[in-house]
From TrEMBL, chain A:
It comes from Streptomyces sedi. Keywords: Membrane, Transmembrane, Transmembrane helix. The chain crosses the membrane at residues 45-64, 84-103, 134-152. This is Uncharacterized protein. It comes from the Bacteria.
TrEMBL record, chain B:
It comes from Streptomyces sedi. This is ATP-binding cassette domain-containing protein. GO terms for molecular function: ATP binding; ATP hydrolysis activity. InterPro entries: AAA+_ATPase (IPR003593), ABC_transporter-like_ATP-bd (IPR003439), ABC_transporter-like_CS (IPR017871), P-loop_NTPase (IPR027417). The keyword Nucleotide-binding applies. It comes from the Bacteria. Gene3D superfamilies: P-loop containing nucleotide triphosphate hydrolases. Residues 3-231 form the ABC transporter domain. Keywords: ATP-binding, Nucleotide-binding, Transport.
Length: 199, 244
């Protein structure tokens, strides 16, 4: 288990990603920036903290990609279950970090940032089944889609955006759980696409 | 226990031409060298035998164990053509991790990793980060990882590719030191280097078995005027041209 954790760079890359996420949530708070929306043609206030999950998602992708694929595919130990545990642990820590920041600062979106980590990680896991390590683009593209196409005139977020919803929003929480569960299911069951060997 | 591929067909995509077609193959005891040109299906056969790839039709068994069984994966070791270097692990940790993945406990895996690295003459690099090793050294890490958990069947995909002559000699010594209880199937393009030291030879061409039998039977295909020391190459060439 130690070598698995070390191999997944849990103590370096993941720790760094979690630290960057915590710092971003604490520093960015509820600050917003006016950005144009493609749909409404007007500028809308967008939360900086929507970006906070990116370093953690990138760290998770790097961590899950640091593997001995050949040995793990023929292992007698359940490595994918361990990976699922790692992902759940990171999401739980992200929520805990968000909760702690919320308690300390009262920021409205701190816990939501933790929830967004779970949602975007679900997207990441779904995408990496099909596109491998390029899957890191999925959460980034989602965030940009939300920022530039997710708000109507008046600044109301569309139902599909999930990310801008505040702490305690039940539909957003359910969407995050669903995305994460789908991602873990695909990660645990679907084998990566095989490429032919020249020999 | 014998490793047996029964009526195996495999294609990388459902619509693609099969790499292996209705292949029946029983791995004989001892060391078998798998020969064939690029694209013959050698690596695919090894992947099927390792259980990392499932055949579209047919099945793979070790004795009564199907390839999807956990006990099968514990009994079979596979060294792939491309050896991944784990960024965060040393050479010894990478070998020990492979042993742990195969079900060994941490202490046994750690002890066995030192022994396995010593067998491939890499003990002095045990604490070097795997990513800092040369291509030849990394292949030796791959061989050590295949040896670490005392598997009954070793599947080695081009184990000597990128090794210098001294490393190849060490590898041949490792093969020679394996007990009779271990069955080995290794693919190679080094016909002269390995074929004459094996017990059996299998030649694969275009996804079909062109020849399988004893090494003496294989060498008998060489022309009578073949240069001593190059008989294996001559036999392989003769077999390839006959099918051509």
């Amino acid at each position: 288990m130690w070598w698995w954790l070390k191999g997944r760079r849990a103590f370096s890359v993941l720790a760094w990603g979690l630290g960057a996420f915590a710092a971003a949530v604490a520093v960015l708070g509820d600050a917003t920036v006016e950005l144009p929306s493609i749909l409404s043609g007007s500028a809308n206030p967008v939360l900086f903290v929507l970006m906070a999950p990116i370093p953690l998602c990138a760290a998770l992708e790097l961590s899950l990609g640091s593997r001995l694929a050949e040995a793990e595919e023929t292992a007698t130990r359940r490595v994918r279950a361990l990976d699922a545990g790692l992902v759940l642990g990171v999401c739980a820590l992200a929520l805990a970090v968000g909760g702690a920041v919320h308690l300390l600062t009262g920021d409205t979106y701190a816990v939501a940032a933790g929830r967004n980590v779970a949602f975007l990680t679900g997207l990441l896991l779904c995408a990496r089944v099909f596109v491998g390590q390029a899957a890191i683009a999925a959460p980034v593209l989602w965030i940009f889609a939300v920022i530039f196409a997710g708000f109507s005139r008046g600044g109301h977020a569309a139902f599909w955006t999930v990310l801008p919803e505040p702490n305690g929003d039940l539909p957003a929480a359910l969407a995050a759980c669903l995305a994460l569960a789908s991602g873990l299911l695909l990660h645990g069951t679907v084998r990566p696409t095989e490429t032919p060997s020249p020999n | 226990m014998t490793l047996h591929l029964r009526a195996c067909t495999y294609a990388y995509r459902p619509w693609a031409r099969p790499v292996l077609s209705n292949l029946d193959y029983q791995l004989p005891p001892g060391v078998t060298v798998l020969l064939g040109p690029n694209g013959a299906g050698k690596s695919t056969l090894l992947r099927l035998a390792a259980g990392v790839t499932r055949p579209r039709t047919g099945n793979v068994h070790l004795g009564d164990l199907p390839s999807r069984a956990r006990a099968y994966r514990g009994a079979v070791a596979w060294m792939p053509q491309h050896i991944t270097a784990m960024t965060a692990l040393t050479a010894r940790e990478q070998v020990a991790y492979t042993g742990w993945l195969k079900g060994m406990n941490r202490t046994d895996a750690w002890t066995a990793s030192a022994t396995a690295l010593a067998r491939v003459d890499l003990a002095d690099q045990a604490d070097t980060r795997a990513r800092r090793l040369s291509g030849g050294q990394l292949r030796r890490v791959g061989v050590a990882a295949a040896l670490v958990h005392q598997a009954r069947v070793l599947l080695l995909d081009e184990p000597t590719a990128g090794m210098d002559p001294r490393q190849r000699r060490i590898f041949r010594d490792v093969l020679a030191a394996l007990t009779d209880e271990v069955t080995v199937l290794l693919s190679t393009h080094d016909v002269a280097d390995l074929a004459e030291e094996s017990d059996h030879v299998t030649v694969l061409q275009a996804g079909r078995i062109r020849y399988t039998g004893t090494t003496d039977g294989f060498l008998a295909h060489a022309p009578t005027d073949a240069t001593p020391g190059r008989r294996a190459e001559a036999a392989y060439t003769a077999l390839s041209e006959t099918s051509g």
